[in-house]
Write a structure and sequence with these properties.
single chain, about 325 residues, alpha/beta, D-Maltodextrin-Binding Protein, domain 2, ten-stranded mixed sheet, 11 helices, 10 strands, about 45% helix, signal
């Protein structure tokens, strides 16, 4: 092989590498789509639209939100997992998609680790343990003692949003932490749960802070403890489970942005930088907090570590509580 030929090959390879670098550096060159596997109007949708608006300004291209609800987020997640890995299809979804369903469901069309490139977690969503106003328990410790007393009488009933939901898992964590047997009662949503608690159908309930806080402030139910590392501004007088001596009750929902697996590293770096800057903006943080969420920026590796840890935790909780989803 002649030196001239080798030099030509080297020059060609350098040219291809330079072209590829320029191509990635030019990203984005067209509109970006953020898939939300929920219906419009919820917290996930609101966070996605906030991100889309700011990303559009940062990246100089339109960023649109496309709602693809169905099958407890599986439909939207599968669409993104199968999308072209070019950075123009992303997904913002909650921990239901990444850790809850994979821990409870026998088979899924996507893998929460291998099907995606993990960009960042941008918000945390604590839940709150609620008590019926007439319940003889004003603290989480008293509620735990009461639940333990009721274990031999069928178990204290508490409201959830159905098998495998965030309230269900948090409730099972609470029952395990206090050594009690409790009976989950499914409701279709927060409004139905609160009505049931007011009517005395269930003694306790687990709800999102965003939905429950107005009902607590109105005096319809009492809040005993919230999950997460710190108290929520919407319920400043309500301790965390850790403050109440029950750090095992650690379920906190969250919202993470991902791209399809094999999305080029330069594209991911562009998105990571943009999201990091967006989540440092005080106005963005206020907007997220106004949704009763905790604004954060958790990049790729901590994001992946969180998935691994929660998969292990939720799988164990589901096995002990015999929770399965068909």
């Amino acid at each position: 092989m002649s030196a001239r030929f080798c030099a030509a090959v080297m020059a060609f390879n350098l040219a291809v590498a330079a072209y590829a670098g320029e191509a990635h550096a030019a990203y984005p060159e067209q509109a970006i789509k953020i898939v939300v596997p929920f219906t419009p109007g919820g917290a996930t949708d609101a966070v996605a639209r906030l991100l889309a608006n700011r990303l559009s300004t940062k990246l100089g291209q339109s960023v649109i939100v496309e709602n693809r609800p169905g099958a407890s987020t599986v439909i939207g997640a599968d669409v993104v997992a199968r999308a072209q890995p070019d950075g123009y299809t992303l997904m913002l979804s909650g921990s239901t998609t990444y850790t809850v369903l994979p821990a409870l469901k026998a088979s899924l069309p996507y893998d929460p680790v291998r099907s995606f490139e993990h960009i960042a977690i941008v918000a945390m969503a604590p839940v709150v343990l609620l008590a019926q106003n007439g319940l003889a328990a004003t603290t989480v410790q008293e509620a735990g003692a009461l639940a333990k007393q009721q274990s031999n009488k069928g178990g204290l009933m508490y409201g959830t949003f159905g098998p495998g939901s965030a309230p269900h898992l948090a409730g099972e964590m609470f029952a395990e932490a206090v050594g009690a047997k409790m009976l989950p009662v499914p409701y279709k949503g927060s409004a139905q749960l609160i009505t049931a608690m007011i009517g005395g159908e269930v003694a306790l309930g687990v709800d999102t802070v965003s939905s429950a806080a107005p009902q607590v402030r109105a005096g319809k139910v009492r809040a005993l403890a919230v999950t997460g590392e710190r108290r929520m501004p919407q319920l400043p007088d309500v301790p965390t489970f850790a403050e109440a001596g029950l750090p095992e009750v650690s379920f906190v929902g969250w919202y993470g942005l991902v791209a399809p697996a094999r999305t080029p590293a330069p594209v991911l770096q562009t998105l990571n930088r943009a999201v990091a800057e967006i989540m440092e903006d005080p106005q963005v943080r206020k907007s997220v907090a106004d949704l009763a969420l905790d604004p954060v920026y958790m990049p790729a590796q901590p994001f992946q570590d969180k998935i691994a840890k929660e998969l292990s935790t939720f799988t164990a909780v589901a096995k002990r509580a015999n929770i399965t989803l068909d």
